[in-house]
Amino acid sequence: MSGFIKEELHLLLLPALVALFFYVNLVRWKRTKRLNLPPAGSGWPFIGDTFAYLKPHLATSTGLFMEQHISRYGKIYRSNLFGEPTIVSADASFNRFILQNEGKLFQCSYPKSIGGILGKWSMLVQVGEMHREMRMIALNFMSNVRLRSHLLPEVERHTLLVLRSWRENSPFSAQEEAKKFTFNLMAKNIMSMDPCEPETEKLRLEYITFMKGVVSAPLNFPGTPYWKALRSRSNILRVIEQKMEERIQEKSERQEGAEDLLGWSLKESNLSKEQILDLLLSLLFAGHETSSMALALVIFFLESCPKAVQQLREEHGEIDRKKQRGQPGLNWEDYKQMEFTQRVINETLRLGNVVRFVHRKVLQDLQYKGYDIPCGWKILPVFAAVHLDSSVYDHPHQFNPWRWQNNSSATAATNNFMPYGGGPRLCAGSELAKLEMAVFLHHLVLRYRWELAEPDQAFAFPFVEFRKGLPIKVYCIHDSPM
Ligand code: HEM
């Protein structure tokens, strides 16, 4: 084709595209005009309310934007977020309805940048049959039997490794320590990587760069956090791939239960090499960031609630005393006795809101509470807004583990509590997360007293993080046998 004709075509194409853009928006506008959509503010063209919605705010609050929108428009409103028309829900029953109808009326739909970085085969972005297959692998790996026999002793071993390294009266970042703990635990269980090995430490540092990209703007230019994260992703995958090759060469069978996730996926699943790589990377991500933040938050909340620390010490002291002399480590019966501890964990997740909302898409036109919910729109169930709603929880901004005591208000609290999501995509690692926190708290309260070395607060960016890394100082309270 001659250059002249090409130029002519370009000249025609541009106005055609602009016309198409306006036509599509006009049709959309006309259609939505006829519908009884949830109410909305004005927002900016194209970018809508995204920046206002994502503006950092205290993790223990819903943020000014959300508060103002709820008070003006109610618990279900519409907005323009992440470049798409969106319905935002702070309504507990609607959130439950959305999660329960995954794959029927709604579908998991994370922004493209998340898939770009976690991988196109990441379990978090997969839907349908492939999601089900990957979910089965994850659930098998964290089954009740494995939790009792294998993961409980592993969690305790990694807890002790971290706590024993702490020096009295010398400030350190509790958030960093929590991340080290959960990363090493996952690396060991996913790929049998030992915490003290330089290779594991190198991978951990690579992972920190990777994480900064997951939560940054998806700008792929040299030097941006997203660009650096994509490079880290390649480096991390190279390590996992090497482990995979070693495993394929390995002749000897591992003991039952001692099999790591890599070995298990190679032997028992029909996934391709590329799919296994993305699955392992996304489990490392899902199982590391969330529970480490939950641990940092519980250390933070307890520091200002001595009554809860005292009750925890009594519970764990009792478990410790009942153990027969010389009996090593915690067992499942010990874990089951940690009732108050579970209330502390619930309250931490309610008030701290590690995962504040999830991304979904509407699969077909429907109505809810008189509103039209159009097919193709994005929909965000915001758990944090329910967890901090004063019509659901009394004094929602107070850390009060006793609200989970068995009575009618605890039942209502539990029904509206969704820190792990729900429905067919309910967190596959929720039981492991609870176990990690309970075992960590057991040894923490028996061994140490702690205080903030300087004031700090957790912020939602919307991922939750302590601005200064939660600097604390610890003091031994007695020589525990650990
Ligand atoms: C306190 C800690 C944790 C919290 C608050 C949490 C929260 C969540 C939430 C809200 C989801 C649902 C996402 C969605 O619906 O789009 C989820 C999914 C998931 N979580 Fe967790 N999580 C935690 C710990 C863990 C741990 C320790 C693991 C272990 C590997 C894990 C593995 C997963 C996986 C594999 C999924 C995807 C499930 C699926 O799509 O079927 N999580 N988590």
From TrEMBL:
Give TM segment ranges. 12-29, 276-302
Q: Name one Pfam family in it.
A: p450
Cofactor (UniProt): heme
Stored CDD domains: CYP90-like
- What is the protein's major site of localization? membrane
**Which family is it part of?**
Belongs to the cytochrome P450 family.
**Name under which the protein is recorded:** Cytochrome P450
